[in-house]
Design a protein that fits this description.
homodimer; 116 residues; globular; DNA-binding
Chain lengths: 116, 116
Amino acid sequence: MSEDVYHRAVQLFRLLSHPVRLRILDELRRGETCVCHLEAVLGRPQPYISQQLRVLREAGVIAGRKHGLFVYYRLVDERARWLLEEMLGPGRPPSPEPLCSCPQCAVDEESTSARG
Amino acid sequence: MSEDVYHRAVQLFRLLSHPVRLRILDELRRGETCVCHLEAVLGRPQPYISQQLRVLREAGVIAGRKHGLFVYYRLVDERARWLLEEMLGPGRPPSPEPLCSCPQCAVDEESTSARG
DNA sequence: CCACTAAATGCAAGATACTGCATATTGTAG
DNA sequence: CTACAATATGCAGTATCTTGCATTTAGTGG
């Protein structure tokens, strides 16, 4: 049973020990994010992003919600969120302008414009 | 500069994402530990232990102090100590009986016997 | 039905990590 | 010096991870 603690820790550390996965999680802790947004922010091809998302999803660290053609991922592992805060500091506020054309980003854009 | 934060986090997570290294660090956070003790606790050949110690040493997470034939390692990265406490809980007390024949373990044994 | 878009999946080549083992180094004692 | 013990290092085979790319699946609109 004590072995399981080690195993779980190793598993989570391994997920975080990857530059792209770490940046994905850093984006996700700001809130729900679509795949196209991650693609734009990280500058990597979509299949590559989806692969890393799968790794994180199958490990139970993130979860996806499908809305039409778009899938919005969010961070669901609080221990991971906590490790990110410790190692990367508090999450920065979301980008002022949307980097993709998904409906949610468009909504954010409208509310931002209306406010400014 | 923000990139560097990611890089440093990835480096540390990678070090911790290895079962043997994680258990070595878990032992070391109890206090200074000789290589022969680690060898006995982890049940792995000495060259293998030394290799993992080198990885941790070159990353600056641990440091070694030489005393005669023996080398005593200790945890020097406070961020690593902190991650260990979060993921593994508080460090357990050291084993009641010495598992190796190094002078320091012998001293511990004497004080333990004298106390009990 | 078709065309189109967002996302997911499968696969393979290349890079990297893991680990066993032989050997070297360092220090002690005689 | 020799003999011995604790630790370190080098190297090689294997396993695992990474990553690019082609393809597939799912959802929308005509």
